[in-house]
Design brief:
- The complex is a heterodimer of chains A (270) and B (373).
- Chain A is an alpha/beta fold.
- Helix content of chain A is 36%, strand content 23%.
- Chain A has 10 helices and 10 strands.
- Chain A has a 6-stranded mixed β-sheet with strand order 6-7-8-3-9-10, sandwiched between helices. A 4-stranded antiparallel β-sheet of chain A has the order 2-1-4-5, with helices on one face.
- Chain B has one domain.
- Helix content of chain B is 70%, strand content 3%.
- In chain B, a hairpin with a 2-residue loop joins β1 and β2.
- Chain B is mainly alpha-helical and 373 residues long.
- Classes of the chains: A alpha/beta (270), B mainly alpha (373).
Chain lengths: 270, 373
């Protein structure tokens, strides 16, 4: 099993080099084209935003990257390796973590347990010791619990450690979900609308966490977001999709000034 | 810095406790009403009302040793029902499949155990005894693992994300396959469980208490202890280990479980294997009380009311539900059975479950489904 920890040189990809590239990817559901011929790349260490109106294929794009969908055409190259059909748990073990548009947490489990599930791939003591919960299994449990406590401190959610996440308000659930993704120590973190449904204060907190993750751990981040202010502030580069096609790609300033983007968001007079 | 909101203050009594108190209150009121009716002469001895509402309780009071005996038998039956229900709950939680084949897995695993013991002692000439019995036990456990693996490969994987009814039909198919396969290999005749060879206690002890005698089968004690340890062990495993957490995660959300790198296929094999081992233990205990035959399969139907009572997704529910059904059945049979000419054990469980359904449609511990509209 492949174990990846972030910000190490083991992968051989330095900051600023291409970490993941999407080449001419098309995705169809029956007759519906969700993504048509989209290409872009994500550089190591950057914050890359994917924006576009509803139904533009943004979430489908993330689903292709983390293996929920297989694109019919095109390729995704990750860490210099052109991937064949990748399954979600394989994507996860190669260092891709994600959060979901409508929070997908384990509702009956506590915050602590939820974040601990993020360590699953890093824990590998066998079933036998686990049944006894002794010796190596116990040592492993303690070691990973320590890491999880660090993440809990980082996200300032100490107070809700033992509360089943189903009972938490939405903003906190989003934060726990981010914590679970961070527990995987990912190299590439996919965030699907991390700030949807949040109030201003919660949004500011979330922005701070995202920037901190990017800067202190060097984690590469790809995020989908509708709040343009947030996108323009956070991201290094932006790719804009509309009806499954790429219409613009570049720094926030360039994208903001692009006529096609303005038309897509404001509509065109016919 | 944002302040993290803490949860709202807890109500003085938890909702579950409130509900229990309410039920107790209702029963108390009924009991008082009965006493008043009997004392006032409105319900003379020999009347239907007296026979149904008063006489059984008077019997319990007059013969406490019989009451203890009945309760004990109910407890043992209840623990075994809980074990069967646990097999269902495990699989239902992790894969959303109602495993119709759980009953036949009980028979199949027990047959494998007894069958391989017979083959080893009779055809291969190994000396009968504990060593061979343990060997047979290992073979049975290994068989349940192979079965789990095959089910995941051949049944679950191709059908993933299909409708629940399709999954149910697949397990019905599995049931008939296992019946045919089991009969082909081990024959259709009932077999005797190798109880003593496995080191399980046989015989009984009599206690003189409450002015009478209570008979306790050693096997029943062993059954209750082993089942309890097993249930406690599983609960512990689910709560505190990585694989346990992964199992609960899969039960909660497939999508999220996949995204953190949990392999559904691996989890399904583990779950079906665990259910298989639970089936084997059930088969040993149940087989020791009667015979190991395909007729045992119907005890799976007994798990249904237990599941309805406890909720399909709750391990504690399976335990409490099992105990209520087991004790309710034995009490019903012992004290009210004669009024119906006996044999009410076959349907009483369903009536008890129906009664509960009227008040708690989600089961005692089931998740209440609240839909936002």
């Amino acid at each position: 099993m492949l174990h990846v920890s972030p910000n190490t040189a083991t992968t051989g990809i330095a900051k600023g080099e291409v970490l993941l590239s999407v080449e001419n990817v098309s995705l169809r559901f029956g007759g519906v084209k969700a993504i048509s011929d989209v290409s872009f790349d994500i550089l190591k260490g950057e914050v890359r935003a994917i924006i576009g109106p509803n139904g533009a294929g943004k979430t489908s794009m993330l689903n292709c990257i983390n293996g929920f969908y297989f694109p019919q055409e095109g390729h995704i190259t990750y860490k210099g390796v052109r991937r064949q059909k990748v399954r979600p748990h394989e994507a996860a073990s190669s260092g891709i973590a994600r959060t979901f548009q409508n929070v997908a947490l384990f509702k009956g489990m506590t915050t602590l347990d939820n974040i601990m599930t993020g360590r699953t791939l890093k824990m590998n003591v066998g079933l036998f010791w686990q049944l006894l919960r002794h010796g190596p299994a116990m040592r492993e449990e303690i070691e990973h619990r320590r890491k999880v406590e660090d993440i809990i401190d980082f996200l300032e959610i100490q107070a809700i450690r033992k509360i089943p996440v189903g009972k938490l308000p939405y903003g906190l659930q989003k934060r726990v979900e981010l914590g679970r993704a961070l527990a995987m120590e990912p190299e590439l973190l996919l965030l699907d609308e991390p700030m949807a449904g949040m109030n201003l204060e919660e949004k500011e907190d979330m922005c701070r966490f995202i920037l901190d993750v990017n800067q202190t751990f060097g984690t590469t981040i790809a995020l989908i977001e509708h709040d343009m202010g947030v996108v323009m502030d956070l991201s290094d580069r932006v790719v804009v999709l509309e009806y499954g096609r790429k219409i613009a790609d570049g720094t926030p300033d360039v994208v903001k000034a692009d006529q096609k983007v303005i038309d897509a968001y404001l509509g065109v007079a016919h | 810095m944002s302040a993290v909101t803490s949860s709202a203050p807890k109500p003085l009594l938890s909702p579950a406790l409130m509900a229990t108190l309410k039920v107790l209150g209702i029963f108390g009121a009924i009991a008082i009403a009965i006493v008043v009716l009997v004392q006032s002469g409105a319900m003379p001895k020999g009347s239907i009302g007296h026979k149904v509402l008063a006489a059984p309780f008077i019997d319990m009071w007059d013969l406490p040793d019989l009451l203890v005996q009945t309760l004990w038998e109910g407890l043992v039956a209840g623990v075994l029902y809980a074990l069967i229900a646990l097999g269902f709950v495990l699989i239902f939680k992790a894969s959303g499949v109602f495993n119709f084949a759980q009953g036949i897995m009980v028979v199949f695993s027990a047959l494998t155990l007894v069958g391989s013991y017979e083959i080893m002692t009779q055809r291969m000439g190994l000396p009968p005894g504990t060593v061979v019995a343990i060997l047979a036990l290992i073979i049975a456990i290994a068989t349940m693992f192979v079965l789990a693996w095959l089910v995941e490969r051949i049944v679950l994987r191709p059908l993933v994300n299909q409708n629940e009814i399709i999954m149910l039909m697949a397990t019905v198919g599995l049931t008939y396959f296992l019946i045919g396969f089991g009969e082909y290999i081990f024959g259709g005749n009932p077999k005797v469980m190798i109880t003593a060879q496995l080191g399980l206690p046989v015989g009984q002890t009599q206690f003189n208490i409450l002015g009478g005698r209570v008979n306790i089968q050693h096997l029943d004690v062993a059954a209750a202890v082993i089942a309890s340890v097993m249930i406690a062990g599983l609960a512990f495993f689910f709560q505190y280990t990585r694989i346990g957490r992964a199992l609960r995660a899969v039960a909660d959300s497939h999508k999220a479980a996949l995204s953190v790198g949990i392999s559904l296929n691996q989890i399904w094999v583990i779950v079906w294997f665990t259910a298989g081992v639970v089936a084997l233990v059930t088969g040993i205990m149940w087989g020791a009380r009667s015979d190991v035959s395909f007729a045992l399969e119907i005890i799976a139907l007994k798990a249904l009311p237990v599941l309805i009572l406890g909720g399909f997704t709750s391990v504690p529910g399976a335990i409490v539900g099992g105990l209520i059904i087991g004790i309710g059945e034995k009490m019903g049979e012992g004290y009210w059975g004669p009024l119906f000419g006996g044999g009410i054990e076959t349907w009483l469980a369903y009536v008890i479950a129906l009664g509960f359904l009227l008040f708690r449609p989600q089961g005692l511990f089931g998740e209440k489904i609240i839909e936002r509209i």
